Amino acid sequence: MTVMRSVTGVILRNVLGFAAVSLLIILISFLPLAVKVMPHQVAQDAITTNWTQYFKSVWSYFVEIAHGDFGALRVKMTWIRGYMTPELNAQILSYVMGMASRSAQILMSAVVIGTVWGVLCGAVQFFLPSWAKNFLGGVNQLVFALPDLLVILLLQLLVLKTNVLFGHYILGVADFGANQIFALPMLCIAVPVSAMVYRYMVNACREALSQEYVRTARAKGLPEHRVFIKYVMRPALDSILAVLPKVVAFAASGLVIVERLLNIKGVTWWFQARANVPELAKLLATILMCLAAFVIVVNLISSLLRLWVNPALRK
Q: How do the domains of the chain map onto residue ranges?
């Protein structure tokens, strides 16, 4: 009963949190509609506010989303090469969901692979000789210090050189037409994520190793690997799961750069839309809610896993 109550509480908190964050995103995204600037050639520009129009636009957005569309949306998209037609306008939400699904596949795969790799490297380094520890730490320091843009360009160059070396197409470097890539954008996000998680893992393991119960277990003659797995890994994994939503937010910020450089039509592609302010507010709110949904889902999963890893949280 205690476990079910804890699980229900976690789910309820995340659902309410997503609802609150979504409402805040919508209210902030539509704020430009409340401000009107009237330019003047001689005197200072006049700035007025129209809160009636603001709340009317917000309510209209809720109604249109409930109907499954964006209402009247006149926006020029680079990938459509023209303005939205009525037929495309009726399918605008399905376009958003399709793009969000593509972004979610890349982002979540990168977070999972990067997190697992970072945890494994962080744990294994405690059993390596000094020179291997220094080498692994130096590589992590280098990757962590490099800007995301440079990491993406270096990985693109590596893929190009690999294709040339083997003399045939192995991995794609960008989306072209119906040819969609997955491995490269996933790696571009997973590499910085693994470097970040590696640091968290090493620090968490060091903190756990300094605890009294670890010294007691060693004094009882338990093998080192058993002490590490039972008394160090569990609290370290709890610490990793606690910061996992922050890791996802970090990865989502890199997703914007990855999709732009690799020509991927994901959810952040809407940032490239040429739109008037009302349409831009609708698109921006939808984009940010999709990104918030990614973080909330990971936060929900990590919270449930923490209940399993750390029994003290079930009370």
A: 2-314
